Amino acid sequence: MEKDLDRVVEEIISTPNVKGCLVADHQGLCLAAKGTAHVDSAGIIVAVSEQACKIEPNLKPPTVCLETDKKQCLIQRHGTITGAIFKQKD
């Protein structure tokens, strides 16, 4: 499983404009981090996703987009795993 996760993270990080990628479990434990993604942000990313899920609890987990003028962070939860992709805007 670890090799599969590393392969997926490598594939994501090689996408144009992607500068970082992080994957965490439901407890906020970082399973993988690459690029500008920092291991210490795993708990916060999971917490943001959990709070967003409370807005519409009967729907599938939403994708959260945090933006600045130059950067974007996309957070998506799937089951017990949460991922974040950090992008540089064009």
UniProtKB/TrEMBL annotation:
It is found in: Cytoplasm; Lysosome. GO terms for molecular function: guanyl-nucleotide exchange factor activity. The keyword Cytoplasm applies. InterPro entries: LAMTOR5. GO terms for biological process: cellular response to amino acid stimulus; negative regulation of apoptotic process; positive regulation of TORC1 signaling. Gene3D superfamilies: Dynein light chain 2a, cytoplasmic. Its main location: cytoplasm. Keywords: Cytoplasm, Lysosome. SUPFAM superfamilies: Roadblock/LC7 domain. One of its GO terms (cellular component) is lysosome. Belongs to the LAMTOR5 family. This is Late endosomal/lysosomal adaptor and MAPK and MTOR activator 5. It comes from Arctia plantaginis (Wood tiger moth).
